Amino acid sequence: MIKSKGYAAKDQHSPLEYWEFERRELGPNDVLIDILYSGICHSDIHQVRDEWGGTQYPIVPGHEIVGRIQAVGSEVTKFKQGDLAGVGCMVASCGECDNCKSDQQQFCQQKKTVWTYNSVDVMHDHSCTYGGYSNNIVADANFVLHVPETLDITKVAPLLCAGITTYSPLKRWNVRKGHKVGVLGLGGLGHMAVKIAVAMGAEVTMISHSPRKKADAALLGAQKFLNAREASAITASASYFDFIIDTVSAPHDYNVYLSLLKTQGVYICVGIPAAPMEINGRSIMGGNKILTASSIGGVQETQDMLNFCAAHNILPETELIDIDYVNEAYQRVLDSDVKYRFVIDMASIDKQGK
Ligand code: NAP
Ligand code: ZN
């Protein structure tokens, strides 16, 4: 077994704390990565606090991972020792079903998607997976991304979830010049959605509950800003947008924002609040609106996104922290007080547990 050290929560009410554990041995198709940087996604918080149900404790979160290849299995040709590598939300899947074969491994029809953490590794030893708030990780090489060396490695990790989750639907819906895109919620996903939609040529409006973020939205490239708390501004923008991408992590009234779409406009949900969505049928029927959602992205699509970001010089706005700051960082994410993604410098784990 491979020895690891990380930060784990022992139950839904406990803070994350130092924990030593073991990972499975490297198989022929696997790589071992020394983790350098790990992003903090709001999904980590939802799962640590068991807001979606089914969390297995102890949980080591983290699915925005960047590091260097430390070792490769005997069959691996895609990577060599020292390569810069990334891991997102998945580390294995069946590879045989139609969805796996069409780069939609997150929807493996055999239900064998192995998530990076809080998941049973049904493709290997049925152990529980542990994520990126740790010094190393073992993953199927087919699920590991090449990270372009031109990107600042201290900032690149959030692309592995926040980047792909927003790139995927914007690309699928062919967002381009001439489209008006509203991004609801300026957090980790929201700020990536702004940068990517702008790079695709769209006119982007930031729709935020935090008026203090207006100047930042402009710096990120948003041409307009809509204060979601100002009813008159919402009414004045009725039927304006071709697309809205909703990144909000907390329960909110979808019907209000659906009113901002044009006829046949598309509302893309990527935020996953703990409470069920309540939609009035009339909110989508008037104007034949399209209500859809999107879940992360496939492995090849994630590689495409990394290459797109390298080509357009797109990187997240990050605050680099040591691992012992992680519990304060969680509270600041919950308070919408992060610009706009925390990234953990994993070298800081070496100061722990002595
Ligand atoms: P985040 O950084 O915390 O951003 C969420 C934003 O939502 C906040 O910055 C805030 O923006 C807004 N918000 C928060 N509380 C609110 C409230 N009570 N009312 C209205 N707006 C509120 O979170 P994130 O990491 O971007 O993740 C966002 C959501 O996407 C989470 O639910 C996460 O689990 C989910 N997610 C989904 C996928 C997927 O595959 N679909 C992948 C990753 C994450 P303003 O202050 O600007 O309003
Ligand atoms: Zn995530």
How would you sum up this structure, described in words?
Strands 3, 4, 5, 8, 9, 16 and 17 form a 7-stranded mixed β-sheet that branches. The chain folds into 2 domains: 194 residues, Alpha-Beta Complex (Quinone Oxidoreductase, Chain A, domain 1); 132 residues, Rossmann fold (3-Layer(aba) Sandwich). The chain has 10 helices and 17 strands. 23% of the residues lie in helices and 26% in strands. By secondary structure, the chain is an alpha/beta fold. Bound molecules: NADP nicotinamide-adenine-dinucleotide phosphate and zinc ion.
Strand and helix layout:
Layout: E1 2-8, E2 17-23, E3 30-39, H1 42-48, E4 65-72, E5 84-87, E6 90-92, H2 98-101, E7 114-115, E8 136-140, E9 145-146, H3 162-172, E10 180-184, H4 188-199, E11 203-208, H5 214-220, E12 224-227, H6 231-236, E13 241-246, H7 254-258, E14 261-269, H8 281-285, E15 290-293, H9 299-312, E16 318-321, H10 326-334, E17 341-345
The protein binds NADP nicotinamide-adenine-dinucleotide phosphate and zinc ion.
Pfam family, one: ADH_N
Protein name: NAD(P)-dependent alcohol dehydrogenase
Keywords: Metal-binding, Oxidoreductase, Zinc
